Amino acid sequence: MRRLLxxxxxxNVLIAMTAGGFAAAALVLCGAPLSPLAVGLPTAAxxxxxxxxxxVRFDPQDDVNDPAxxxxxxxxxxxxxxxxxxxxxxxxxxxxxxxxxxxxxFALPLLAGVLYAxxxxxxxxxxxxxxxxTGLKSIYVAGTWAATAGLLPLVVSGVPIAGSRAALLACLxxxxxxxxxxxxxxxxxxxxxxxxxxxTLPVVFGVERTRRALIILNxxxxxxxxxxxxxxxxxxxxxxxNLLPLYGGVYLGxxxxxxxxxxxxxxxxxxxxxxxxxxxxxxxxxxxxxQLSSLSS
Length: 297
Prior knowledge:
Layout: H1 2-10, H2 13-29, H3 36-57, H4 62-65, H5 67-75, H6 77-98, H7 100-117, H8 136-156, H9 165-188, H10 190-196, H11 201-205, H12 207-231, H13 243-254, H14 261-269, H15 272-296
Helix pairs in contact: 1-5, 2-3, 2-8, 2-9, 2-15, 3-6, 3-7, 3-8, 6-7, 7-8, 8-9, 9-12, 9-14, 12-13
């Protein structure tokens, strides 16, 4: 089972499932129905950007941070590229048919990925790439996820965005969950980042301080759901997503043992969205059964 889970992680299937899972959660938070297109487009978009990033760009630093993933990518490079190309073409065609905003949001993570790793300033500048700026990297990646797995499914489903407090909360919630995800990965990559001079939050502030800050933010995401239900009128079914801070608390606690950080990052943390998707399906299934029961009575 461990080998299968790692293969799903290394092939970026797990991160794609996480995108779809958080898209489903955003829809449920806003009271919108799940639709294959609204969930499928974020899934395809994130599969494309992460596969192209790992397979085409292939950062040699990954040989230090995650040698097992690097070896897997070298073995399966051609099939991974083929599947990513199909996802890009198929997703782009469907997104364009939905209109300009959907097409732009579908393309956003790919464009953001190019900018993320490209040297934007001339040689000799202290910071040349977005990924080199302490803190900005994590906000930038989490913001891209919020737009793709939070905003995109809502636009596809026709949820009114302007002035919608539910839409704002859903995007903020995805943003916070992925800020935790991104910084946690920096904890796992701290040795390679320190060696290459990449000043991530764990490198600058230390692993333990960063982990404690993430524990506080993890709890704050639960409070965000409470505020949404009690003050903004979200359905009480949103409380089911407060199981995710419990899930996050487990991996943040286990991070003290650095021997399992690789598995925690690649499978447990990157699989959080798959858990969110499962919770979304359970909520929708429960609502359907409730409606059928009331109709039959």
